[in-house]
Amino acid sequence: MRWKSDTYSGWGRALSADGDLARPERISALKGLPPTPAFGARRSYGDACLNSDGRAIDMTRLDRILSFDPESGEVEAEAGVAVGELARIFAPQGWIPTVMPGTGFATVGGAIGMDVHGKNHHRDGAFGNHVKAIRLIHQGKAKTITPEKNAMLFKATLGGLGQTGLIVSARLQMTPIPGLAMKVRESRAGDLDEHLALLDASDAPYTVGWIDATAKGDALGRGIVEEGEHSGDLPPRDGKAKTVPADAPRFALSKPVVKAFNARYYNRIPEEGRTRLRTMSDFFFPLDRVLNWNRLYGKHGFHQFQCVVPTDAVETLRGMIDSVARSGLASPLAVLKRLGSQSAGFLSFPMEGYTLAVDFPNRARAQGLIRSLGEQTAQAGGRIYLAKDSLADGATIKAMYPDWTKWQAEADKADPERLLETDLIRRLDLRST
C-alpha cells in the first residue's frame, strides 16, 4: 500500500491537516497494518477526519457490494460505499437504506462512525439502528461484531468516531419502497411557534424544516416544513448537477445577499402550501445537486453548528435563533428538525428534542457566536453533534454525553496505545478521564 504526503480537510475547510494518506483498493491490503485512523468521503465538517502529522487511510476505493438478499432487503457493503450509491442501485429493485443523511456522498463506514440521522429519525431512529453486523479490523485481526454477541463493543462503534477499530464492511437492513418518487407537502411557517407546531403534528415518514435564520421580531423562526412519503408515481427527471468551480468572494454570502435569498426562498411557497412530486435524490440530498458547494464560503471555509435541545427547552431554542438572526452571520443553510428518542451508540448524537443546524462563514465573530450557542445548549441539557463540531471543548462534550465513559472504556480496550486518535479526539481529550 502506497502512502502519499498531502494536505487535506473536512467539508468545512476551516481546519486542515498535513500527513500521509493511503487509498487501498482491497481489504487484504489492510492486513498487518498497525492501527491507523481511517475516513471515508470526509463529509464531516470539522476535524473528525483529520490526523495531523500522522497517517490516515482513505477508504473510498473499498466500495464493493458484497451481498444482497432481494427478499429481505439485507445488504452487505464495504465501508467506502456511498449511501447515495446504495439508494441508486437498489431503489429500482424496491429497497433503499432506511436512514439517509443530508448528503448521498457519506460512506457506509462514515455513517456508522458518526451514527448519522436523517429526516425520519422521529420514526426510524439513526443509521446504527439498522446495522445488523460490522466487520472490524480489531487489534490487528478481522472481527465481525453484532448487537447480540458484542453489545458493548457494538454500541461503542456506532457513533464511536473510529476509535474501536477499522470498519471494513457492514451488513445493513434496508427498507422497502413502492416506487422512485417522493410525494412532498411543503408548508410555510410564519414564526417559530408555528414551525414547531408543524413539526410536532407531522405524521409523515420524513419531516424537515428549513429556517430563515435572518428573520427577526414577529417573524423569528419562520421557515418551510417539508413532509415526504414514498410514491409509486412516475418521478420527474433529476436536473443536471451544477458545480462551484472556485472559491467565492466574501460578499457572496454577505448579510444583504443572504437576507434577500431567504426572503425569496420563503415566498416561493404559497401561503396555503403545496404538494408536489420530487425525485428521491432531490428530496434526500438537495445540496448534492451543487458540487463543491462548500466553496461558496470562500478560501477560509465555514463552520456548522448543530445541536439538539430537549422539547421543553423551546425558550432556549428561541433565544439561540434570535442570537443567530441578530448576528447577521448565518448563511441560507439552516435546518430545524424533530428527533425521536432512539439512540444506537454510546456517543450517538440524537436524543428526544429539536435539532438546529446553521452554517457560518469562518470568521472570528462567528466562532464566538458558536461557542455561545454551545454554552446555551449545555445549559439546556442538550448536545452538540461531533460530526459537525470544530470549536467545542472537551469538558462540555463529555458532560453532554452520559455514556461517554462506557465508550471510552471500550475504545481503550480496542486501542490501548491510542493509535487511532484523530485531531477531534485529541482536541476534546475524549480518550482521557
From TrEMBL:
Protein keywords: FAD, Flavoprotein
InterPro entries in the record: FAD-bd_PCMH (IPR016166), FAD-bd_PCMH-like_sf (IPR036318), FAD-bd_PCMH_sub2 (IPR016169), FAD_lactone_oxidase-like (IPR010031), Oxid_FAD_bind_N (IPR006094)
Domain FAD-binding PCMH-type, first and last residues per copy: 1-177
UniProt GO MF annotations: FAD binding; oxidoreductase activity, acting on the CH-OH group of donors, oxygen as acceptor
Domain of life, per lineage: Bacteria
Keyword Iron-sulfur: no
Identification of the protein by name: FAD-binding oxidoreductase
